[in-house]
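Workshop exercise sheet. Pairs work together: one partner reads the sequence aloud, the other fills in the structure field after running the prediction. Swap roles for the next sheet.
Pair: D.N. / O.F.
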Amino acid sequence: MGIEEVAFDSPIAPSYSTTSSSSSKGRSTFIPSLFFGKRRFLWYTVLAGFLLFLIFSLYQHSLVSLRHHSAKEIIESLTSNLDNHHQNNNNMKLNSGRSNIDNNNNQLEENSSSDKTLPSNVTQSNSGGNNFHPFAHIFYYAWYKNEKHDKKYEHWNHKVLPHWTASTNEQYKHLVGKEHDPKLKQLATNFYPSRGAYSSTDKDVVMEQFLEIKNKANVHVIVLSWWGVSEADENGSNTELITPFFMECAEEAGLQVIFHMEPYKGRNAASVKRDIKYVIDKYGNSKAFFRHNGKPLFYMYDSYILSAEEWKTILSPNGKDTIRNTKYDSIIIGLYLNSGMRDNIKNSFMDGFYTYFAADQFTEGSTCSKWQEISEWAHNNNLLFIPSIAPGYIDEKIRPWNKQNTKGRENGQYYQRMFDAVLNLKHFPQYITITSYNEWHEGTQIEPAIPITVNNPNSDQFDNIASAYLDYSPKDPDFYLTKTRENVNKIFKL
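Structure field:
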């Protein structure tokens, strides 16, 4: 151990001689004291410096850590804000795409007639990859039969119908009551189908038709003519027998189905309620079953045959046999003929109305120039207005005395005017209906038709008339399908 250490560390100070002069004495006595204090001062200085260095180092470390932590927080905050900003932008973009649907769903709660919306039950299978839309409904008839699939013809061989006056029947006595003969290519239609006298039970045909409706016309909802649980049309066709088949085909094709409730003999409020319950119980769980805002929708053809008092028993919330606020509650769409029926529609507690008829000016409802005012009335009374659009009308093969109601197609211009009338409506309809896909008897079909010449040797006057056909020339057989698609896309911005 060195002497400095002993001298500083020892509790006993070393002794020194003091024989010098006074002047020397002062100096001599100061030197050892100064020496001793200087060494201690240096140690204190070193120690203090070390402590200051340590404190400064700790301070610098803390400051750097603080700055690093703050910078990290700032970066994280900025990143978070940017992420939120991008997310908000994405949400805004997504919401802008959904806003019309959301707003329209709110409007549907009020049963408004001015907006379009997706039904709440559109299934993923029918809406996801298939771009399902519910806005256009097309009337479809499943009453055709042929010998190959059904062992008999139905509807293609329809008889010529009588007029309600004897004098007119006398004028057409050479035609009235005669039956068309598909074997001779005499079909009860003024146009000849590209598929010939097909059967509505032929799955290949039906699937072709459904995919044609969906892919070529861009219509995803068919309105199936339905004649009751056990009843039949005037030709004896009970459509319920093949309805399960059509529902399966619609599911497979990605279409949805609305029932067009036809006026079978003896129809009344009680039988209508029975029909509604039957349809919902049997088909309501099918993914092809159409719903409007969660409720089934039914078109009621010739609804005016029943009085408002009778309809109220099942449609008024307080009706004695009401379907309202039950699992069978439905959207009921009546047929509108003219303004004289408005009270009937309102007092029947219906949810809206459609016009069906294809001949412009045949009824007030089918008169395009009246649609603006009719739509306004529907809007003011919280009713759905569903106009019906058609490519033309001719039923002279089965009603030769009805020429005054024939409406030529004008190479598609007649059809276009009806679409344009919808586009000009102030209160935009949620749905439109198209009359029709395949009502061949009345010449309203958009299903493809082809030119054909039939020569029947030794034919009489009926044979000559029965064998003559119109076609879509100079347009191609698919013309009315593609024209439907163009206008549906335009009207509903698809």
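Discussion prompt: The domain at 124-492 is CATH 3.20.20.80 (TIM Barrel). What would you look at next?
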